[in-house]
Structures are given as C-alpha cells and as structure tokens.
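Sat 14:20. Reprocessing the chain from the morning session after the first attempt stalled halfway. Input below, unchanged.
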Amino acid sequence: MKTKLIKTVTLTMVTAMLMATGCSGKTSFEEFSGDPSEMITLNADFGKIVDPPLLKKVAQYNAGCIQPLFENYDRDWNRIDELYADSFRIDLTVGKDSGTAGQVVTDNYEIYDWNQETDHYKVDKNSLNYDFTRLDKVVKYMSDHNILPYMSWCYIPAPLQVDGNAHNLDNNIDNWQEVWEEIYYNYAKHYRDAGVKIGYHEIFNEPDLEMLKIWGAMDEDTTMFLDIDDFAPNGDPSKGVYNDMYEYGAKGILRADPDATIGGPAFALGEIGVEGWVGFLNRVISKNLPLDFYSFHTYMDGETWFISDERRAEGITSELEKVIAGLSKDDYFLKTALHITEYNWLNDQTGSSGGLMSPYNYYTAAPKTLDTVMEAVNRTQIQWVHWAQFMESTAGYDPYGLIEHVNGNVKAAFNALKIYADMPVWRYESTFSKENTGLKSMVSSSDDKISLAIWNNNSPDEENGDRFVKIDFDNAKFQSGKRRVYRIDETHASYFDNKKSPELVAEQVGSCDTGDLIWQGTVPAGGVVYITVNKDGAEDFKAYENTSVFADDIKTSYWYEDRYRGLEGSRQNYADYAAGLSGSYSHFDRKSWTMYLGMGSATGIDGAYEGQAHASSSVIVRDLPMKFTVDLSTEGNVRMLNKNSTLGFRVDFFDEESGTYVKSVYFHNGLYRDSRNPNAQDEKLAGLPAYPWGTEKAPDEVVEFDGNIWDIDISLYAPEGWSSSDKAMLSFDMQNTGANTRAMFRLYK
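Finished this time. Tokens:
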C-alpha cells in the first residue's frame, strides 16, 4: 500500500532565517524546537579519506520484453545521460519477433542432410539470413550517447529452436554448434564492419533458471531455457550444452573481432544454480577461451550477497564469496572481472506487488536504492553492476523500471541514482553524533564541488521516524561557494507521490561559507536530502557534459592480483576478500578518460603486508595522440614502502605485422625502482609474467618526470614504423604505496 503522510512530531517549520549560519538562500533553514537530546549532528571531514571511493560502477539494463520499443526509446532515452552510465545491457531475445531486437536470425534458412531414421538433420550455416534493423537502432541510441552496448546474446535463434520456442535448443541438429558459432560470428562482424564498438558480449542469459524446478518455484513439466542435465556434472569440462554454447559463441565472436570483451554465464543464482559451474570454468581453461568477466544476478535477497553472523558460524557462505573463491583458485582468472548484470533491491519477478502499488514506485524506494548502490560500491571485487531496470515494460506497470512508461516521468529511485551519479568520486568521512537513528550518509568532494547525501531508513509508518540534522564541514577543499539543497520525499522528486513534482529541484540556493554551519533541517522517514556546494557556482547533475574523446578505446582490462593472493590469507583477512572487500581497486572512467587507483585499507595479517596492495588496469586504444598530457593527483601518504612500490603510467606499442606488443615505456615521478620484482614476495604468483599484459615483461624504457603534470611526445618513444593508427596499450599501476593512498590519472590531448 502507498505509505501514509510523514508525521512531524517535535519539529516545527519556521520561516525566520537561522542566525549566524554563514549561508544565505531563498528558503530558510528549519529551527529546532524539540528536545535537545534529539538533535543529530553530521560532521563531514574532508581531511579523512574513506575507501573505496564513489566509483561510477552502476550501469543500466533493459529486459528484452520492453514493448512497444521505439516509441519509448525515442521519448525517454536522453534521460540515460543523467545517470552517467558506462554501458547498457539488453536481453536481445533475438530468437523471437517480440523481443527487443526482433528475430534477427530469421526463420528463412535451409536444412540439409536430414536423416529420416533418427530425425536428426543439419542446418546450412551459409543459408542464414539476418535482419539487424531494430537492433541497429538500439545500438545507435547507445553509441550516440557514448554508452557501450552490453549485449546479452539470448535466447535460441530461429534455426536452432524446437517448435518455434526461443527458450529451447533443438539437440537433433547434429551441427548446431557450428551454426551457433556462425551466428555469433555474423553478429560481431556486422558491428565490426559498421565501426560500432560493442562493449561487452555476454553469452546467453540465466541458463540455470530451471533450477527453480528443484526449489518448487516452477512446475516440473515446464521447459525453459536449458535443462539442468545440460550442464557438466562434477566439473567435467567435456560435457554440457551451455559449455558448448559458450565455447562456440566465443570462437565466433573472436573470429570477427579479436579485441572483443567476452564473458558469461549470466547465472541467475551466482554459482549454486548448477553443479556444473566448475565444469564451465574448466572448459574455459582447457580450451583457452576468454573469460574477460564472470557475470551473475542478484536482487539482494536470500544469500546471494549477505550471510548473517549466525549462518556464517554454521559454515555457510554467500554466492558472491563462492564465486570469488572459485575464480581465485587458478591464475587463469586473474584478469576476469566480476559483473552483476542484473541488480536491484527489489525481487518481485512474479509481479505480486507490481502495478501501481509496487513499493518501487514511491519515495521510500530512494533510500533503499542508495543502500543497494553503496553495497556495490563498497565491494571492490565487483567491477560493474547493471541496474534492473531503466525502463518499464509497457504491458503495464511492472515492479521495475526507473521511468514510468505512460508519460516518461522518472521515479524516486531514478532520482536516487541521479544523486549518486552527480557526486564527485573521492569519498570522505561523515560521522553522526548519535548511533542507531536509521540515518546513513555519503560525502565526497572534488577541488570545486562538495556533495553530501543523507537518507533515513526509518519507515514512515513508525512513530518518531523523522530526524532533525545539522551539518558541519571540516577541512573543506575550498572556502565558499553556491549551496543547493534537494529532497526526495512525499512531496519532492517522487512522481507517484506528487505528480506535480517528479524532478530534483533545488529548494535552497545561496552563497555558503564552508567553514560555518552548512544546513539544518528534517530528514523525513523514508526520505533523502542531498546538499551540494559548488565553488564556481556550476550547475549540478551535469557530469555527462564533461566527457571527452581522447582516443579510440577498444578494450579495458583489470588485474586482480590481490584477489588471488587473498584466498591464501597472505594479505588481508580472507573474509574481507571473500566478501569482495579486498581494499585495493582500479576503475577506468572512459567518459572522462580518468583512471582511479587505490590501495584501500591494505591492513594485512598481523602487519605482515602492512600498506601493501596492487591495483593495475589497462586500456587498448587506437588513434592515440602523438602529444598528450597525463595529469596525476594523489591523496594520502603515498610513499616507497619497498623495492616493489610504484606509481606510474605505461605505454605498450603493438606491431600489426607480427601481432604482438614489441616495446614498452614506463613513466613515473620518482616512485619506481629498476630492481623491482613484483611477484617475488608471493610464491603463488612467482611464476607469472613480470607484467600481466602488453609485452608481459619489464619496461624497455623508464622515464622520470618532475611533478605531476607530464607532457608526453609519444613519437620520442615509439618503435620505428609505429603510427597513431596502430594499437597501443595504456596501463596504470599503483603498488605498495601505503594504506588509504589513492591516485587519479587524467589524460588530455
């Protein structure tokens, strides 16, 4: 049911200006008239680093059942910019006309070699016909907004279906693997030839969904997706229909696009859905297949993400922990990122609480959304999550969707994600004067913008759930600016609560001295208050306008050395690693061409590895400018702890004729030693290459710069014959520089 009106108990709205605040504005502060013991102070200290930062790792997702498609895309797509999404995942449902992409592989094909006795036959792979019309339009939407298409290649294409059912594979086709590979090849080739970058290829969607039969959530006679028996039992990599799907799909994609980013299996249930997930990992290793990312889904229910202390005492671990542990068992997966490709706090797949009365439609969804975002942000092992979902299905008000489908109005949950997208990345300490109040906060700052979000998890149905808060800043990065205050509550920024006020609108705008009281007022139960101070008076929610095109980025890779180490407990506590809280992090923001690196807490065990961690990422590019600038900024006590400590930027040059990287140059500002041997301290890693990518060896040339602004003329270092149209790999390294140290590299033409 729709929640009732907010109750104001001890608080009185007063129109008089609060004295001595240091802030002026169109709307006055509230004056507190209640019991002094009920006053709550929030202190934000910008001199105290909080890790991990507010990395913009929340991308977006649309189910394949969004219909009618283009009318709503045409109307609503521009709103994607406000969420600063790196990528956009869609279930293509390419095997049926009603799916997002339509029936891309048409049912116009030829059968040959039919065996009447066995009823087995073959499909002529050269007779396949394709219709990319609808899919091309969706991809163009993304490309026009500098968003990477994240293709969930599902489900069964028409030539391989049983009785026209897109969820069932016809195993009577003796050459179905060959046809499957050809289909994936032609998809990838279509976009490669068109010059369109597909950011991620995810092979299939929720192949383990029939596990629901075992749990009694699906009728035993239902045939949906793949049968449980289609997975490899007991880790046998030679068996399993999905293993074949992945192998031949990956081969097809790589034939068309050798630089493609490929992953899966998009499990609905992490790893517990099928016994054969180990068989999948073994197939990847045995056939030397790419697994650039491992993907699964969580709607923050059950034990996908959280395990209570009581259950943990019984030896129970979460699906996330099991996935991390599985990937940590073999160094083959050191570069395998973790993607949660469907992510939400609401799990209402049946729509039992759907329609207009869904809790997702009302303002109380906003604090739940921020809670869920922070769970993802705090887990440095998770590289991307895709919010489920951006648009409503148009068959009716479904339980999901940030934008309602009738008129395109945004919901409170959309505005919560918009706040997160607006906040600067570097995060700092915020402390409430009282505990157990239901309040949470996050605070961040750049050199010219401060942002602070407070939300109240108390229910509007309970007595005395509102909270009165006053806010003070310490060690702000600048002295004064323009302050704005925004709300999400029953009357603000929530379409289904107040149709006249669906948008975030600043209610308090004025000059502000950051050394004085910033704000005080009520944070209602179930509500959010968002406060910004802009040094130059700039507008909020415009981060997407600051995008840049530095080079043609082809592929981003991450190095999870600490995850691999952590399984042995050699650095931080294993439980932290297993929960995804490894501490060290790296994240490439391709929209602003910024790489973020950090050591995290890096506490070690008994101080054995105090302050030591490794964060490293790379980006393969073309059209690298011959002259460019690297702007490095750091926070914390960045220092040389041992001979392996380093902080720098590397370029590896690719030779098109030989198909290999032939030279590397490492740039730094003093934090580097030629004698470094990064894997010597860890026996488990000692046999790995000195460098995880590029030439896979120590740099051929090392260049030291003074200061943190590096003007680089790449022609001085490139091998003979290399040109900017050739590929290069840009890598960023931070290792053993001390706990809670972090760095930011920005690249400019």
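The chain is about 15% helix and 30% strand.
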